[in-house]
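Lab notebook page, bench 4
Experiment: in silico fold of construct C2
Operator: M.H.
Input chain length: 275 residues
Purpose: comparison with the prior construct
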Amino acid sequence: KKWKSDFLIHVSEKSDPYFNLALEEALLKNSLEGIIVKPIILLYKNDSSVILGKNQSLWEEANTGYCRENNIQIARRLSGGGTVYHDPGNINFCFITDRKFSHVSNFSAFNSPIIDFLRSLNIHSEMNKRMDIVINGKKISGNAQNIKGDKMISHATLLYDADLNNVSESLHHKFDYVNSKAIKSHRSEVTNITDHLKSPLSTEAFQKKLFKHLQKHFSAKDFDISEAIKKEVDSLMKSKYLKKEWVFGNSPKTEIGFKLFGKTHGSISLEKGII
């Protein structure tokens, strides 16, 4: 179905996960304040990173040692949902629209144009019961939403040519056990879109085709980020997204168990990221 409103569309010039998470929030804020009056589509790719849902426990969701050893950054986003892995082979798409009851927790309105695009490349994909986009039952896209006032963000990953070993290793903790009341991620078998193409296509070429498809589908006009919004992004990065209080401290109380020696076990409790 076509949307009634024309959209604005932008591809982020940066691959810093903290910048792009802050950019999403800054665009949402400007939409709420009526500075930006049209709905927005944002495309971006991040450097290797693990992105936590707002209310998740870092130690339950990520292998922090593996991330540290492999220069995988850890960040936390504005929306809930599960933890995801980003890298330059993963394309993220974000819709900032009016809040509509029919679109809250219903991702079909946002996923359908992506599925149509994949079908134009002779790739059969569909949504499963969890509203993930899958190819032959394997996940290529997970979704999350955040609602503020009469506006909402709906954003998702799109695994194109990501490092699937990093996906597996970075999203599994190595403790004996971890207990918390945090929202848990649902782990699924994943696949890359590129493995299902009949002809090779670079990540950049794929993203350009996706951009053109969304631009046509939503009658979207390309727009540049204003200096005022860039200042807001910089401020949000410094005051929130880069802060350990946000990334670590937002984790709910968590108990971690581990073996000390023989049959002896130990545990530590963390609250707001502090032992």
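Observations: Residues 17 and 110 are 22 Å apart (CA to CA). The radius of gyration is 19 Å.
Next step: discuss at group meeting.
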